[in-house]
Design goal:
This protein has 334 residues and is of the alpha/beta class. It has one domain: Bacterial extracellular solute-binding protein, family 7 (D-Maltodextrin-Binding Protein, domain 2), CATH 3.40.190. It is 48% helix and 17% strand. The chain contains 14 helices and eleven strands. The chain is globular and about 60 Å long. The termini are far apart. The mean pLDDT is 94. The structure holds (2S)-2-hydroxybutanedioic acid (LMR). (2S)-2-hydroxybutanedioic acid binds next to loops.
Length: 334
């Protein structure tokens, strides 16, 4: 009788803990620094929706947009420590991690079209870059597009010489630093969350970003001029803490992989349109003028900034830059 009741309570206890286990979802904290209403914000929301559906609730994705949890530098540290599981930092932010090759994406005029970009991110170059993250305790899952950057400032900008002496906010990339110095400007690294205030208070004169970031952070309200330079690119790597990822049940990992594939397609499909809409909204706001360069002016910007590609060979790797340029040639450019 005693044995029977012991067995009974053991079975009951295991049922209770089994039920509790089945109910406790795996939580993915996904932190990022931009607004929800951006290509990255929307793709993160899509991932949450697909991941929770595919895993039938075994995984819960908690989104923390707009630097509500961490700023740029802190979020990378938090990922490595396991305080968050997923991020999508811009490719310009991997240098401080010691993976400077990612700064290839920051080189002025490196991508003559989005097709060349996709050939890089979806091909062997993208795979090799993601592999470099493994030794940092990070697994790279996907590249998400955003767009080409515009310049903003309180002064009109038609020619590279107009940037001379201006204090310009940049992301933490040595290539972006070199790019601004090539324009005889003074680059200042600031976290994304600090840009609006720095522009408003005059700590910096201007900055660069795709229109989607400019508009959703209301930077156009504190900048008198925007010039559509399209001089450089900004996109993302979606990354996870490697230990967390490797420790997931294999079926869950496969379902999340599928959800990530679909979200990536979505991110890349909406990016251009989102940026076009944002640029239109900036124009409509009437708060800032939007200037389109003439062909002659475009040529001047290229002349001023193209040498940065060569100057940065030592940092990024001559072969890597050459391989990216080869993708452009394969697609009929240059
Ligand atoms: C920036 O800091 O300007 C961007 O990287 C923000 C972002 O994540 O798009």
């Amino acid at each position: 009788m005693k044995l029977k009741s012991l067995l009974f309570s053991l079975v009951a206890a295991s049922l209770v803990s089994g039920a509790a286990f089945a109910q406790a979802p795996i939580v993915i904290k996904f932190s990022h620094v931009v607004a929800n209403d951006t290509p990255k914000g929307k793709a993160a929301e899509r991932f949450k929706e697909l991941a929770e559906k595919a895993t039938k609730g075994r995984v819960k994705v908690e989104l923390y947009p707009n630097s509500t949890l961490y700023k740029d530098k802190e979020e990378l540290e938090a990922l490595q420590l396991g305080a968050v599981q997923m991020l999508a930092p811009s490719l310009a932010k991997f240098g401080p991690l010691g993976v400077k090759e990612f700064e290839v994406f920051d080189l002025p005029y490196i991508f003559p079209s989005k097709d060349v970009l996709y050939a890089v991110t979806e091909g062997p170059i993208g795979k090799d870059l993601m592999k470099k993250l493994e030794s940092k305790g990070i697994t790279g899952l996907a590249f998400w597009d955003n767009g080409f950057k515009v310049m903003s400032s309180n002064k009109p900008m038609h020619l590279p010489a107009d940037m001379k002496g201006q204090k310009l906010r940049i992301q933490s990339s040595k290539v972006l630093d070199a790019q601004m110095r090539a324009l005889s400007a003074n680059p200042q690294v600031l976290a994304f969350s600090e840009v609006y205030q720095a522009l408003q208070t005059g700590v910096v004169d201007g900055t660069e970003n795709p229109p989607s970031n400019l508009y959703t952070q209301k930077m156009h309200e504190v900048q008198k001029h925007v010039t559509v330079t399209n001089h450089g690119y900004l996109g993302y790597a979606v990354i996870v803490n490697k230990k967390f990822w490797d420790g997931l049940p294999a079926d869950v990992r496969a379902q999340l992989d599928e959800a990530m594939k679909s979200s990536t397609k979505y991110a890349n499909a909406i990016a251009q349109q989102e940026n076009d809409n944002s640029l239109e909204a900036v124009k409509k706001s009437g708060k800032t003028t939007v200037y389109n360069l003439t062909d002659k002016e475009k040529a001047e910007w290229r002349k001023a900034l193209l040498p940065v590609q060569k100057d940065m060979e030592g940092r990024i790797g001559k072969d890597l830059i050459a391989n990216v340029n080869k993708e452009a040639v394969k697609l009929g450019f240059k």
